Amino acid sequence: MSTQTSLNFRANAAKAIKDAPLRASMRNAADTFGTRRTSAMSAVDFEALREKASAIRMKVLDNHAAYLEQFTTQATKAGATVHRAHDAAAANQIITQVLKNHGVRMAAKGKSMVSEETHLNEHLEKEGIEVVETDLGEYIIQLDGETPSHIIVPAIHKNRQQIGKLFADRLGVPYSEDPQVLTKIARKVLREKFLTADAGISGANFAIAESGSLVIVTNEGNGRMVTTVPPLHIAILSIEKILPSLKDLPTFIRLLPRSATGQAISTYVSIITGARKPGDATGAKELHIVLLDNGRSEILAGEMREMLKCIRCGACMNVCPVYRTVGGHSYGWTYPGPMGIVLTTLLTGLKKSHPLVDASTLCGACNEVCPVKIPLAELILKQRVNRVSEGLSPSKINIGMGLFQIATKSSFLFSLGERLANMFWPIMRMFGGKNVVGRLPHPAKTAFRRRFK
Amino acid sequence: MSANDTVSLFLENAAKVAAGTHRVENKDRLKDKVAAIVLKGVPVFCPQTTELENVVAALFDKLAPDYTSADASVEEVTAAIAETGSIVCASTGGKAVQSSLLPSHHVAIVPREKLFATLDDFFAAYATSPPTNITLITGPSRTADIELNLVIGVHGPERLDIIVV
User: Fold this and answer.
1) Can you tell me the distance from the alpha carbon of A323 to that of A325, in angstroms, rounded to the nearest whole number?
2) What band does A314 get if pLDDT is binned at 50, 70 and 90?
3) Which of B 12-41 lie inside 8 A of A, CB atoms?
4) How far apart are CA A305 and CA A309, in angstroms?
5) In angstroms, rounded to a whole number, what is the distance separating the alpha carbons of residues B124 and B127?
């Protein structure tokens, strides 16, 4: 299990940068997804689509309470039981209770980042309920006791040799490093799990207010298995994932897979409306929907609410020069990359995560690819301001920036500073440390602004 | 776009994501096509809830009683969408959507009048009172979770054939 925390971002990143196989994997993922995304987007009018998507998501956030209420009413009418969970502990408690009421010993689970946020698996295992991850990437990292490093391809930090060895060790199968062979092994092992699981647990990409439906977008088919094969289905999702109507879905189907993996559409888009009804041969007999707040209501009421437009495509990660260098684990919490910086600092509080706001060059590449037009760079900048106003920035920086501020207000002091910097540079290097001042070049003999006299 | 063009676009898009695509003129040709596609002797599930399904069911000497014990399933689907090359399986009329999921070979029969041009056209028809399950299926199941290598056939079908009638 990863013990890395967001507060240790710098140390985590420094360690990750020295990990050559990790960097190769991350580069491969970022380049491949980046290229595929660009080519897939060329088939559609991206600007028009994301304008529309952003407007729909904003409408949801502006009328969130009403849409959430409508979703709850409609889902209940369709035969689902809807639960509201204020925080992670409450969500885990609700799910445990439902599983225990049904005497569940083993649950098959589809991919859900929200359940990573609540540490659901850990909790259920403590309660004596076995949870089997069924997304191939999630299954791989579960076998190795790890957490996802990418929200779309969770095991991207592992290469085929590591996975081959892991399968040989844990599953007692002959070693292979052929992705085809390894995938078929997982198919066989997990098919058995789907058929014998007492319950299925899934996330959801969207919840539809008008019809009370859940929308789940997948490629492997495991999401379909866990939601239709076991008699009990529990879906956990966060409260912002609402769309007003199924009529809004096409826009998001056109954007989400293209942004995530460069596919024109994912292999499966499942729309689940309530539990199995009389005359149906499909659907879990009982469906429980757990809506997790975990701090989102506060974000919704604040000045950074646009973050909640996010549809978790991962496009901002693949283009981020920091993410592709340090990898997902360095961020120390569930969500990495630019969206992760904003969401982590908002959900866990700057006090527990403020070093993350430095994990950006503010180049704005994330803004350009975001399918719902979240101004990520601006939100990160805002969190930097908030870090200062909350008194969390390191005292060295505060003193330095304070002196700089005084100097910039006076032409005399600024000129003096320029000259002093030149004179005392060797001494500053001694005190400034090898990694900060030591890396900077010697100040120019003639200041830039003086060349234009 | 003419109806014919819509069918062509649909099949073109489905072929792009590794589905086998076929087009037949009538019921007799459908029978020939299904006989040619489905491996001889494997247990086949066919729900026999529509006329076309009844026509093809007669081809098989070994019909599986349900989708869990079948290697292949042959069924008429609820709809199809040209824009994305998707077929749609829905729970309407007591259909088990899982029959498009568990057997390793899925053969989808699409009557051409069930083809929608765009995602918007399809969802406009289903938005207000959708059945318990609607699944859009685009190509056989796939993953890229190991070093981003595409592998076809993970938990769902390893092979998908689509026949437009």
Assistant:
1) 5
2) very high
3) 13, 16-17
4) 8
5) 6
Please enumerate in sequence order all residues whose Cβ is within 8 A of that of B46, keeping only pairs 6 or more positions apart, or say none.
B53, B56, B57, B60, B63, B73, B74, B75
Distance CA B43, CA A318 (A): 44
Q: Do B155 and A281 touch (CB under 8 A)?
A: no
Q: Closest-CA residue in chain B for A163?
A: B146
Which residues lie across from B163 on neighbouring strands? B22, B109
Global ipTM? 0.97
Amino acid at A296: R
How many Å apart are CA A17 and CA A429, to the nearest integer? 24
The length of chain A, given as a count of residues: 453
Which of B121, B145, B162 is most worth mutating to test chain A (most A CB atoms within 10 A of its CB)? B145
Please state the separation of Cα B135 from the chain's center in Å.
11
Q: How many residues does chain B have?
A: 165
CATH class as words, domain A300-389: mainly alpha
Can you identify the CATH homologous superfamily of domain A44-296?
NagB/RpiA/CoA transferase-like (3.40.50.10420)
Global pTM reads 0.93
B146–A179 CB contact, under 8 Å: yes
Of A42-56, A87-101, A189-203, A429-443, give the lowest mean pLDDT range.
Answer: A429-443
Position A452 scores a pLDDT of: 75
pLDDT at A168 over 50: yes
The answer to whether the CB of B106 falls within 8 A of the CB of B161 is yes
Measure CB to CB from residue A277 to each of B101, B132, B140 and give the nearest one: B132
User: Do B164 and B34 meet the contact criterion of CB atoms below 8 Å apart?
Assistant: no
- Name the residue range of residue B148's domain: 3-164
Q: Domain of B154: which CATH number?
A: 3.40.50.10420
Using an 8 Å Cβ cutoff, are B7 and B112 in contact? yes
d(CA A210, CA A127): 36
pLDDT band at A274 (very low <50, low <70, confident <90, very high): very high
pLDDT digits (tens, 9 = 90+) for A95-114: 999 999 999 999 999 999 99
User: Are the Cβ atoms of A267 and B123 closer than 8 angstroms?
Assistant: no
Is the pLDDT at A53 greater than 80, yes or no? yes
- How would residue A1 be classed by pLDDT, with cut points 50, 70 and 90? very low
Neighbours of B21 (CB within 10 A): 17
Alpha-carbon distance of A215 to A271, in angstroms, equals 5
Compute the mean pLDDT over every residue in chain B, rounded to the nearest whole number.
95
Dihedral pair phi/psi, residue A58, rounded to 5°:
-65, -40
pLDDT per residue as tens digits for the range B23-38 = 999 999 999 999 999 9
DSSP state of B63: B
Number of domains in chain B: 1
CA angle A432, A433, A436 (to 5 degrees): 80
